[in-house]
Design brief:
The chain has about 160 residues and is mostly beta strands. It has no helices and eleven strands.
Length: about 160
């Protein structure tokens, strides 16, 4: 479970999984949306600001859609990236908000799929499983960096919000 404490994780293909408590089970109000906030970038040995990668998010095993990361950033040190981290390595990503509502799935307000809240089966699980990764079948198989607290430009771990 070291991934839960990691400030930076990177890989080429596959996915990494996180579990969040499903606090929607303890509310009498209807869920209107679920949102994942994460700082992400592509991954290549060294860095390349034009190295694209199709990053997919799954919630409770359902692919909600993909976002194409435009690059792997190393042009300057990330605001929170520690001094001991080599400057030739990935420094920061882009803060992305993946949101699922009754109207579909979105990244930063841009529709990425028709997957809606009802497709996620939130009422059937005590936790909400989130997977983030790159499939071998993606158009742009360019790896992934997931930045957490202490790395990148946003001093935060992955955040899952449930809206009522």
């Amino acid at each position: 479970h070291a991934r839960m404490k990691a400030g930076l994780i990177w890989f080429e293909t596959g996915f990494i999984e996180y579990k969040f408590p499903n606090n929607s089970l303890y509310k009498d109000r209807k869920v209107t949306a679920v949102e994942l906030a994460a700082e992400l970038s592509s991954e290549i040995p060294g860095t390349d600001k034009e190295w694209m990668s199709d990053i997919t998010v799954w919630i409770n095993g359902v692919a909600i859609g993909s976002w194409t990361s435009p690059g792997d950033y190393g042009d300057r040190r990330g605001k929170y990236t520690p001094a001991w981290w080599k400057l030739e390595g990935s420094q920061y990503g882009l803060l992305k908000h993946f949101k699922v509502s009754t109207d579909g799935s979105f990244v930063d307000g841009v529709r990425i799929s028709d997957v809606g809240l009802d497709d996620l089966g939130l009422g059937e699980h005590h936790s909400i499983t989130v997977q983030i990764g790159v499939t071998k079948e993606a158009e742009h198989v360019g790896g992934i960096n997931i930045f957490g607290r202490g790395f990148g430009n946003y001093d935060q771990d992955l955040i899952l919000r449930i809206y009522f």
